[in-house]
Design brief:
about 200 residues; 7-stranded antiparallel sheet; 10 strands; 5 helices
Amino acid sequence: MGLDYSYEIFLPAQNVTNALVELAALAPRTRRVPSLALTLPGGDQVAVPFTSNFKSKPLDCSTRGTLELDTSIMFGLDDAVRAYVSTAYDPELDELGRVAIGYVYLTVHFASWLHPRYALLEFTAATTGMSRMFERSASVRAVFTDLTIASGGVCCLLDTESDTLQICWLNGQPIAETVPGPNFASYDDLVATWPGQNQ
């Protein structure tokens, strides 16, 4: 079995539509896939340049607990990204010096495992090599923390399939801690710092 590292973004459930719009802006402009029309809980509708289970058929997620997307995301070319892409292909950079990485599998949990008022966007690497890039690349980490900020998220974690999760972003600040760890003995301690969970 390979490594399946993931970035996990927690955000207020009502922010999922905005998060998907922000994510769509990170897709390669040259990728030719039909837009996927989504209906989300609450009735919001959004189209994204990705597939779901490699299909582009419109999806009604208004009564579902999860949504699965096959994404391709643009990342800046740092040493870790360069090492990853050089093993597979000669990277074609866009005008911002970014390269497309895919597939990154996204599962949207409309009610997260940590708190039902918060949704979870779970971006999972497709291969062991991509997992190692997730862990080593500052550029990749910046894309996910920037997406956390842009979507109004409260927390971004990196799951490296160990006993702890690495905290990358928490309540508007970059942070380099773990949960469980010295400042967060449990996941409940982490969630207790999130705003509005008792509303």
